[in-house]
Amino acid sequence: MTNQEMLNDMGQAITDSLENEIHGYEIAFGELTIIARADKIVTILTTLRDDANFKFVQLTDICGVDYPERAKRFDVVYHLLSLKHNARVRIKIQADDELPVPSVVDVYLVANWYEREVWDMYGVMFDGHPDLRRLLTDYGFQGHPQRKDFPLTGYVELRYSEEERRVVYEPVKLQQEFRDFDFMSPWEGAKYILPGDEKAEDKAQES
Asked: Does the domain formed by 3-206 have CATH 3.30.460.80?
């Protein structure tokens, strides 16, 4: 049996077992992805963990993806590993920044920090999480830095104030005027004369 056939059989078995909880599955780049309902994620992961046909006993990661043009702009993606069947599966659900996604901490304890990271980076809420607070950024941080509409400079900057002898937060201040950077490959020549190059041309003409 080829890997493609094994993944297809696994996807079909999961679809048959959870036909009311998932929308379907797809196979791409040698990996199986299950498209699921967000409100049924606890039931789905519990079945995939406990059912002898699957035994996905390890949750290896939870991550987020941002699609700002969609009504439900976020994908929350769960990566599972079955040691019994030597197989991996990806569970993908859609979410927004208003309606919480059910927490799966009671299914996989390791989801505690994974869900905190998704909340911190994307702002996806997890209903029932025991301690949903920032994990990678500071507690006074504004916004969620992995969103595609988050400014590269952020909103506030942190520095140590000698006058107040403590760390202070201040609005970001850019100390230089806007510059038009040239991001061409260094192997390509510019279509215009760079500052200073005109001197080299003058010397070439004199010689």
From this structure: yes
